[in-house]
């Protein structure tokens, strides 16, 4: 029954999207624009703009090929949703907190690190809870949510001190203004890797595991609120069971797939997390009276595209653009491998914009753009407020 209701809800989102496409960027709520001076982002590879690449291993070609024309630390062929959010709010792309050099792509948006309009604390592989394994063992980031929050605290204290002691406007030009921290938009997009790790847990273990995830995320929001944050844009987690990496390598997928070819069990766990997260956001609204909290149903946006891929001009899942499997050997996107004495290179597909999945785990720029247009308008937000008005508290939640 839960899956059926979810399908109906996603179908309704698809209908809404159809008539609302022309409204992108309009103040459909009648509320004034917030004019956010900065964005502070916390998350995993879905919104990492170079943190993990700077800290451990550089991203390689063909990552970044579509828009940046070079690898710039994003797990995609181009822009991520957070990039489109920044564009819509007329802000520069976010520099990664861990990157001391910064992006140098040839589009005039970022040349070197600039934190004047925010910072990105997200890293690929990041989790809400502290990971049990290291990045070298499993690709999991050591920069889990508590560490990202600690980085923000350090960033705020240090930049405020530098700004206040600077002797000229030139010295302050790449530093956030202290007063902007309370006016900024705080985006949280994390939980996918925790859900992936929780799929192997028994039912009774998950009953305690998911509330732990939600409580930890709520605690992060409360901490940021205590630090002066007021406008929060909180993403739930996407349909993990629709990712090629989940479907193609499931041990016995027959009989476990829904009408879109997604793994029911995996998506069911994601939906339970999302349900509890939404309840937590409602509670936070009561606990944090000065905060404007928007719960964004990323799951609905992603599932809507996946379920209607062909009509939207995309190759139907679970196809991925970059990466291949040769004689049982997985060759990751942009990597080389020796398969039966032959060197195999995993290049990208000819037309990434026709694919939803970039590398089996992450999304293409085209898919990210499709999602971003929906979330920016507030079509999948519980209070229906577009992102440009997200500093306003809704009275009709």
TrEMBL record:
Pfam families membership: Lipase_GDSL
InterPro entries per UniProt: GDSL, SGNH_hydro_sf, SGNH_plant_lipase-like
Lineage of the species this protein comes from: Eukaryota, Viridiplantae, Streptophyta, Embryophyta, Tracheophyta
Species of provenance: Vitis rotundifolia
The protein, known as: GDSL esterase/lipase
CDD domains: SGNH_plant_lipase_like
PANTHER family: GDSL-LIKE LIPASE_ACYLHYDROLASE, ZINC FINGER FYVE DOMAIN CONTAINING PROTEIN
Annotated SUPFAM superfamilies: SGNH hydrolase
Highest taxon of source: Eukaryota
């Amino acid at each position: 029954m839960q899956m059926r209701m979810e399908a109906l809800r996603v179908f309704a989102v698809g209908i809404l999207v159809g008539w609302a496409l022309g409204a992108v960027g309009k103040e459909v709520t009648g509320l004034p624009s917030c004019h956010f001076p900065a964005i502070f982002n916390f998350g995993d590879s879905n919104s990492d703009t170079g943190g993990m690449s700077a800290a451990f291993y550089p991203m390689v070609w063909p990552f970044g090929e579509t828009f940046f024309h070079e690898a710039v630390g994003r797990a995609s062929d181009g822009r991520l949703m957070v990039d489109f959010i920044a564009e819509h709010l007329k802000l520069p792309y976010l520099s990664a907190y861990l990157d001391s050099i910064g992006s140098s792509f040839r589009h005039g948006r970022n040349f070197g690190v600039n934190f004047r309009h925010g910072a990105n604390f997200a890293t690929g592989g990041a989790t809400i809870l502290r990971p049990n394994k290291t990045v070298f063992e499993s690709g999991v980031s050591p920069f889990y949510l508590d560490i990202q929050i600690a980085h923000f605290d350090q960033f705020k204290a240090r930049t405020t001190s530098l700004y206040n002691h600077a002797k000229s406007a030139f010295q302050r030009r790449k530093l956030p203004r202290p007063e902007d921290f309370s006016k900024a938009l705080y985006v949280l997009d994390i939980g996918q890797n925790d859900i992936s790790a929780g799929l192997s847990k028994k039912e009774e273990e998950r009953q305690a595991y998911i509330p732990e995830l939600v409580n930890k995320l709520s605690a992060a929001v409360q901490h940021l609120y205590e630090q002066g944050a007021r406008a929060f844009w909180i993403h739930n987690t996407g349909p993990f069971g629709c990712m090629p990496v989940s479907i193609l390598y499931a041990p016995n997928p027959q009989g476990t797939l829904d009408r879109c070819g997604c793994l029911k069990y995996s998506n069911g766990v994601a939906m339970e997390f999302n349900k509890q997260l939404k309840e937590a956001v409602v509670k936070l609204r009561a606990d944090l009276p000065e905060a404007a909290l928007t719960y964004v149903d990323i799951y609905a946006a992603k599932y809507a595209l996946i379920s209607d891929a062909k009509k939207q001009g995309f190759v139907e899942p679970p196809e991925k653009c970059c990466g291949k499997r040769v004689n049982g050997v997985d060759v990751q996107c942009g990597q080389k491998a020796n398969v039966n004495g032959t060197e195999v290179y995993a290049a990208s597909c000819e037309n990434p914009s026709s694919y939803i999945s970039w590398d089996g785990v992450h999304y293409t720029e085209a898919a990210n753009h499709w999602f971003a247009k929906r979330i920016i308008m507030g079509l999948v937000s519980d209070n229906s407020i577009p992102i440009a008005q997200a500093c306003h508290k809704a009275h009709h939640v």
